[in-house]
Amino acid sequence: MLSKIANKRSENYPDMFNNSACILKDRFYFAAAHRLPPSSISVCTFSTDDEIIYENFYADFGPFNLAQLCRYCKRLDRKLKSATLSKMKVVHICSYDIRKRTNAAFLVGCYQVIYLKRSAEEAYQCLLTGNIPSFTPYRDAAFGPSTFHLNLLACLQAVSKAVKCGFLNFETFNLDEYEYYEKVENGDLSWIIPKKFIAFSGPHSQSMLDHGYPVHSPEYYLPYFRKAGVSTVIRLNKKIYDASRFTDAGFQHYDLFFPDGGVPPDSIMRQFLDISEKSPGAIAVHCKAGLGRTGTLIACYMMKHFRFSAAEAIAWVRICRPGSIIGRQQNWLADRQAWCWTEGDLLRQAKSQQEKSPLLTTSVFIAPGSVTMPEKTTSKWNYEHANPTYLPIVNDQNSSSPSAWPAEFRTSMNSGTTDNHCWRPLPTAGKKSNTSSTIPESPSVCRISAMGDGNATVYRHRVQVKPPGLTASATSPDFDRLDESRGTKVGSALLMSLSGSADSPDACNRRSR
Description:
Number of domains: 3
Strand order of the largest sheet: 13-12-16-14-17-18-15
Helix content: 25-40%
Shape: globular
Distance between the termini: 93 Å
CATH architecture of the largest domain: Alpha-Beta Complex
CATH class of the largest domain: Alpha Beta
Oligomer: single chain
Number of helices: 15
């Protein structure tokens, strides 16, 4: 009797498997149909077209957000692992509506990438098998015609790269927290890079209803930011609240304004990257809605540090926070992709050289206004700066004793001598420093830590970095205004000469030209 019912039901889709995309042979298929065929004794059919709905802003229709993707993947995984369905073929049926079909294909493709460990290209090719009609590109949430096409493959590549970079892990992903905080009434915030970037809607001077929508004061966000390890807040829109409401609570706050819907000047982009690279904790970024300007600059960081393509970065930001990056911001990111990749490659190359090069173990002894070689030291100090290829020039603090330095540049002294200090460019065994391929725009704070036995002492001292061709002295007023375009490498010849004669006073007194 059951077999007769099954055979009768199978008449509803006699060519389904011939026209479907085979994802797992004899196990999982993806097919298009005008209506959902009922399941049979050997086939389990299901559809998400009317269950998982994208909430559009204007003409945008996807891709789905992280919560929707997580629910689908876990649901499908349960079906494929179910003992009840172990001998049945599971078929995801999608509509012939091109937008619904594209969204369904996105879900199936992501399952392959996340759970079946396939590359984005392999997952995409599986979706193209059979006679399933083609897919349509995604578009932004802005008014007017689309000027940038985000195709399905780019979205799958974004998810694949996010998994490899550690941004996405459904074993640890907190679905309830994501859905709670994405709501406007609960803060309207989304993690883009876990433990690094939060995008959120701009705070107001006070919590209230604005045209029926709740908005929040800075104080509303403080408990969550502290809990999440946020150290820095970056504002990209006009001032609506006083920044001191964050700084008085212990957060760093920066203003990097550029117009709503616009693209940042290159100077703003560089400042954003510099702040992000130096921030000791996570960074909360907002504009007015926390979508366009916010997503654009976070995407720049992703392109530089994780080599996302512009399309991949746009896709990932939208998957985390739908509606992000609109209009010409998309094309601007595509134009900046090569620059971000080059900067990121230089940064990684410098870090690799720092870890391998023996030239960077040369001792350099520092005294106010000059470089000297003391006859004897009782402690050796580890010098760390943003770029290991630069030799520091000390901005004289009028004393060789760290105890006389400003409080913000030192901590309590627990060991070592205060008369002479041996600074050593990294790396040394077990020590690493952050690297950057850009020259600091202003004097930066370097860390010096005791090397050897006993209690470690950490001093902080202000240093300035001399770019190629600069002849001004370290005390010149013009020295603070360094032109970032003058180059990214200096001091390698000096380091080479020092490495050949580390004990030579002449070598230690030599300064970069």
